[in-house]
Specification:
Number of strands: 0
Radius of gyration: 18 Å
Largest sheet: none
Order of helices and strands: HHH
Structural class: mainly alpha
């Protein structure tokens, strides 16, 4: 991706996915380690399952973008510079 707009869009997408990942991790940590966070939620298992699904989806999307666009772009730039 040598286009500046493409780079900016990719960075924004990665940042959003990383924020979703961090939010899911924080929610899971809160429910597992802070009793105050658990008291307001009657179905803690469902809440943990939802956070785990969000975490998995964000990580899968990050890996997919990295595998298909970031690594391949880096490899293309290396080949062009040789």
């Amino acid at each position: 991706m040598t286009n500046p707009l493409s780079n900016q869009l990719m960075h924004a997408t990665l940042a959003r996915l990383e924020a979703t990942r961090q939010e899911a991790l924080a929610i899971i940590e809160l429910y597992l380690n802070a009793a105050a966070g658990v008291g307001e939620h009657s179905n803690i298992v469902a809440e943990l399952a939802a956070a785990a699904k969000n975490l998995a989806a964000a990580e899968e999307a990050l890996e997919s973008l990295n595998r298909n666009f970031i690594r391949s772009t880096d490899e293309q730039e290396l080949q062009e510079n040789e």
